[in-house]
What does this fold into?
Amino acid sequence: MSIHLYDSATREIRVFKPLTPGAVSIYLCGATVQAPPHIGHVRSGINFDILRRWLTHSGFQVTFIRNVTDIDDKILQNALKEEIPWWALALKYERVFTNAYKELNVLPPTYEPRATGHITQMIELIEKLILRGKAYAPGNGDVYLDVHSLDEYLTISKQKLADLLVSPDGDQSFKKNPQDFALWKGAKSGEPSWPTPWGAGRPGWHIECSAMAHAYLGEAFDIHGGGLDLVFPHHENEIAQSNAAGYPFAKLWMHNAWVTTAGEKMSKSLGNSLRVNELLSKVRGIELRWYLGSAQYRSMLEYSPEALEESAAGFRRVENFLKRAKEIIGQNPEIKISKDFAAAMDNDLAVPEGLATIAELVRSGNAAITANDKKTISENAAYVRGALSILGCDPFDDNWVGDESNDLTEIVDGLVKLALAEREEARIRQDWQSADRIRDAISAVGISIEDTSSGPRWTITRGENR
RNA sequence: GGUGGGAUGGCCGAGAGGCGAGGCUCAGGACUGCAAAUCCUGCUACACGGGUUCAAAUCCCGUUCCCACCUCCA
It folds into this structure.
């Protein structure tokens, strides 16, 4: 059994073999911290978090780098709008992102480098590129990569240089060729800048990732990830810069698809993006994560409020089984990975197929609860919990347990039991009216009552819209 | 113009030549004082037109429609 992954570069699924046996190095293009995250951003984080958890489970030592881009055109623009310094804006949104990742149980990366902390590495890389005759500084403070000097270009988007539409930004007077792209941008007045051999300026968009991947993962590493929209130009240009410097760079490219609404990509410019915070007021973090992680990472995920609610309800069914299993076996279920789930994950992270195995375990597990078959209950619960732990949705994970305000649970339990005792008395009298009145009163505050063979059981429902 | 992705039952969503993924909804049943939860049964779909094959949702040819990238994007 071995992990198979789809490589965007070769466009085929291949057996994954790391450069160093037993270890995997991953670089994921993280956020440009210019605004709060929408669910598309965190889908990427979740997809690669699942990859990371699966690789770790499979016995690999994973080094996971996810950068923060904290200097860029939009950051400068938005800082002007918000009337705060650009660095304050960047840090503000970096914290919002960090918080969103935490609320969705996305593990912190091994290291999370910021672009502005690696100016030195970028300058070194650019100098190397100039020395090798792959880049040029025309004297206006900019430095461009000479794409015609490359042995190869556009290898993963499979486009031809001549077919590209020329960007309409006009400012091409210093370029040898319109397709050349900026490694470094000369400072305009009022903009932040760093001193360089070519004058004061700031980084181009792509150079940071080449520099940071090199700094933390070396000249070659296993997996480079990001959203599908980064294939061109961002990743092509990263490859161009790194290869031109003599680095083999990434061995495998993985790209997650988007979250769409009404068939259209969620994007800032369209204004149809859904903020993470917005949705966290509708469903719990664990439910949002379950939803965003439920589609295969290369499939578009079509968002609708109904789809989210349906998915959340589906998760609650799974969660409910685990909690009932815990009550019966008297402790948290073990964490085990079933063969079927493993086979699904090994197949390019086929989460939907994995979900089907969970559904079957929950169904037969519930039947086992009815039959009071403890062996099957604990076995199924262990496999379900194992699968959920890979998906980052294990309800017994410390990250989520805080959600439950556990310290209050016992107090509530005492109160609810008082009321239930009264209801039981009414039921013995066959005074259904009183019994139902008590049940209705309890459910009105967001606690639902189920009569089971072993007596009444209560759970917090939080109402429809939380 | 170039490069990709897609169209699957009421809905969501997998699969990728034969053996009905799965979920949700709905209908019926079991359990229940009634609910809720749970279980059981039912609902034979793959954009369109050709073709290949013993066999096609899956392969080939053609057509229609949708989305995206080539400017900032996860």
Chain A has three domains: 4-159+172-256, 301-403, 407-460. Residues 242 and 466 of chain A are 47 Å apart (CA to CA). Chain A is about 45% helix and 15% strand. The mean pLDDT of chain A is 91.
